[in-house]
Amino acid sequence: MSVLYNLDSYVLLVLWLLGIPVGLYAFVHALMQRSDAFTAADKLTKPVWCAITGVGLAILAISTSGPYSFLWLIGIIAVLIYIVDVRPRVVEIQQGPRW
Fold this sequence. Notes:
Keywords: Membrane, Transmembrane, Transmembrane helix. The chain crosses the membrane at residues 12-32, 44-62, 68-84. InterPro entries: DUF2516. It holds the Pfam family DUF2516. This protein is an all-alpha fold. The chain has one domain (2-95). It has four helices and no strands.
């Protein structure tokens, strides 16, 4: 039974550690985009998404107890919402149609 507990701990640790560079990528990506692309994609404004991803990254980086506090889940969810939902629409708006 302790092997399963240790495996669970290692999986959470890996997810937490992978969340930090993903959060950094999302924050930098949000900073580098044009502000009109966010409103054209019917998403929140650029400063709001920069704040959301920045706070998410800060939560991931500052979380002192690592994956055991589950506060980092708030940060990773905020970052993943940007990566999965907002980023593709903003990139699509800036690149134009694919055809």
